[in-house]
Write a structure and sequence with these properties.
By secondary structure, the chain is of the alpha+beta class. The chain has helices at about 100-105, 135-140, 145-160, 195-205, 210-215, 220, 225-240, 300-320, 330-350, 435-440, 445-455, 455-470; strands spanning about 5, 15, 30, 40, 55-60, 70-75, 80-85, 110-115, 120-125, 130-135, 165, 170, 180, 180-185, 190, 245-255, 265-275, 280-295, 355-360, 360-365, 370-375, 380-385, 390, 420-425, 430-435, 475-485. The chain folds into three domains: about 1-55, no CATH class; about 130-240; about 245-485, PPM-type phosphatase domain (Phosphatase 2c, domain 1), CATH 3.60.40. About 30% of the residues lie in helices and about 30% in strands.
């Protein structure tokens, strides 16, 4: 199919040997830059005003060794596609008219078509470079991006379900746009949209023990007959996926000597399902806090109660409102600051020193694949990775007196305190222990390590408490033990 020569100014057809447009008088030795709309010399490669490439490099998603089209010339033939460069840009570009054309237009990569004969054409595409194969592109993505990619493509063919798609290749440009060859009619080497989508999902490289492997290996997946069924199946399957499973247990005792318990703790697990506009998500978090109070007339008990309450409220109010967690540290810092303000304000109203109070705080927050831990004071936090136990909290105590705190919540203004906040990335599974020093004063580090290695959270906590009580129980004892296991989606 022969292309017409068009005036770049008015768009009307002109003779191929004409020097000026007979309609608008435009000098046909020049063209109009698409970038800045200024008149530039036709012989130039780039616009001297805006730098726009006048002759673009384009691609077709098939291998072509020769093309009888004066507008383009082949500059490189690759295994799965062909790269062209525009040669005569005065020749017309074809507008999208078919379902195939509008498929590429919907992705923003349609540029033109090349007719191989009167009945056969191939799309000319303008992707962002580099162009990569499915396996390479998939490897570059994080789990959340992979989920979005899957739903992007499945939903795309929900709108273009009548198209047939070439079995190979599957390419992506730098912006994640799908590059495949499609057809309005069934022909050799092309699959219906639902068959192609199921093959595409099976091609994704996932581990054998991943959740997604089970999703696409099921009989329910095999029996899907339409793109709509596939969308619903993937939504239902992936909306139940949680990045982590959390198991925890807490126990507290006033011990055998103290008249009341100045320790307080909180466990708050939170789950949230939603849809981020592209794909479903299931958010699972857990917050674990221990506070060991200090002060007369039950002041320590009141301080620790207020601290776990306020810190939990502040952190959970953030978790329930937000879905994307960029940095948890400011949230934790703000929560401790708020708790400090509440207790410190009560201390400023106390009539005697004996009525003043304060407390330690130690906690852990599970968000996605991260375990955040934080403390002020000397209440310990320990992590057990299945091999060895590591104490990760910082003891705010004097070197000359390990029982004299250098930092605690509520005793001074917050600008004089520095909370210790860190995070641990969960690769497979981690156990953590948060406790008051009533445990670690009487139970050895090695005994805690053995308990975490040998027992699940509830049994380990009860066993460690029994050891502390057998050895005198001279202080209040509070123990939280949690186990966090990371689930593998892909």
């Amino acid at each position: 199919m022969k292309r017409r020569k068009l005036c770049p100014h008015c768009g009307r057809e002109v003779l191929k040997n004409a020097a000026f447009c007979p309609y608008c008088g435009f000098d046909l030795s020049k063209t109009v830059c698409e970038g800045c709309l200024k008149k530039v010399d036709l012989s130039l490669e780039t616009c001297p005003y805006c730098g726009n490439q006048l002759r673009k490099e384009v691609m077709v998603p098939v291998t072509l060794k020769d093309v009888a089209d004066e507008r383009y010339k082949i500059i490189e033939v690759r295994q799965d596609y062909t790269i062209f460069k525009e040669d005569d840009i005065t020749l017309e570009k074809y507008r999208p008219v078919s379902l195939e054309d509008f498929f590429y237009t919907s992705q923003g990569i349609y540029y033109d078509v090349i007719y191989l004969n009167d009945d056969v054409k191939v799309p000319v595409l303008l992707p962002t470079h580099p162009v990569t194969h499915l396996d390479d592109y998939w490897e570059m993505l994080k789990d959340e991006e992979r989920v979005s990619l899957i739903f992007d493509i499945v939903n795309m063919f929900l709108k273009h379900e009548k198209l047939y798609i070439a079995r190979n290749p599957i390419l992506f440009d730098a912006d994640g746009r799908l590059i495949v060859n499609v057809s309005e009619s069934e022909k050799e080497g092309f699959l219906s949209s639902i068959v192609w989508l199921k093959e595409f999902l099976r091609q994704l490289k996932v581990d054998g023990d991943s959740v997604f492997h089970d999703v696409i290996d099921s009989k329910d997946f095999e029996n899907i007959q339409s793109v709509r069924e596939l969308v619903n199946y993937l939504y239902a399957s992936l909306s139940e996926f949680s990045k982590v499973d959390i198991e925890s247990f807490a126990i507290t005792s006033q011990g055998l000597v103290r008249g009341h318990n100045e320790d307080n703790y909180v466990i708050a697990e939170y789950s949230k399902k939603g849809f981020n506009g592209i794909a479903p998500y299931y958010l699972r978090t857990g917050l674990f806090i221990v506070s060991d109070g200090m002060g007369g007339h039950r002041g320590g008990e009141e301080a620790s109660r207020l601290i776990v309450k306020v810190v939990a409220e502040e952190v959970l109010s953030y978790l329930t409102k937000e879905h994307v967690f960029l940095d948890i540290a400011p949230v934790i810092n703000r929560a401790i600051g708020r708790a400090n303000a509440v207790v410190y304000q009560k201390n400023t109203r106390a009539s005697t020193e004996r009525e003043k109070m304060g407390a330690t705080v130690a906690g852990a927050l599970v968000v996605g694949e991260e375990l955040w831990y934080f403390n002020l004071g000397d209440s310990p936090i320990m992590l057990f990775d299945g091999k060895s136990l590591l104490k990760v909290s910082v003891d705010d105590v004097m070197l000359s007196n390990k029982k004299a705190l250098t930092q605690a919540v509520g005793v001074v203004p917050f600008d004089r305190l520095v909370p210790h906040i860190s995070k641990y990335r969960i690769e497979k599974e981690i156990k953590f222990l948060i406790c008051s020093d009533g445990l670690t004063d009487l139970v050895k580090f090695s005994e805690i390590e053995d308990a975490l290695r040998d027992y699940p959270p509830e049994r380990a906590a009860k066993f460690l408490l029994s050891l502390a009580l057998k050895r005198g129980g001279i202080d209040n004892v509070t123990i939280i033990i949690g186990k966090v296991r990371r689930n593998k989606l892909f």
